[in-house]
Amino acid sequence: MQYILTDIEGTSTSVAFVYEVLFPYFKAQVANYAEKNAAAPEWQHILHAVNETVVSEGGQRLDPHGMVDQLIRWTEADRKHPALKTAQGLVWDAAYRSGVLKGHVYPDVKPALERWRQAGLNLGVYSSGSVAAQKLLFGFSMDGNLLPFFSNYFDTKVGGKRDSKSYMEIARQIGLPPNEILFLSDVEAELDAAAEAGLHTIQLLRPGTPAGTRHRTAASFDDIDSLFNTFKA
Asked: Which residues contact 157 (CB under 8 A, 6 or more apart)?
């Protein structure tokens, strides 16, 4: 095994941080951001994508204020829409850089990243949050800048996390056979897809995560090292 690919929410980072800190901040600030950046090409691209989806799903067209409201509704529903994920990353960017937000990581994460890199393993991230949002969380984490530990970042542009083809594509981009990659996640359906693609898998059982039955489990990153020798190439 040469590579560890980790999920974020519920794996390296508390689910509560996402739902009780990041999402409420976005909902409170997105209208203000939209007003200040109404003419910015990136924001216009987001609105265009929102409008395309709304029209295709319901046949209605929204004005800019209506599209901001739609982004808020999608946030409340935790929809994995690329335009929403991009918008969230933009709104969170200034908050991270100003110190208003600090990315939560469990205390066992940074020491494990250090151990794994020292052991010669390469590390990557695969999350439904945009690559920009991933880099903000790890770059401005409560344990400092963790970006140097990671070689690659993947979001749903490679595909959905419950689709085995996404993991095949990640393996292709990394340049390793799937059986040289270990995927960490709290969600059993994501691990199923990764295993179907040929990756090794471990389910993280953070507080509140129900244990599955189809994958090896670990309570924290500290428990993962002892499982390395159970994987066969």
From this structure: 82, 131
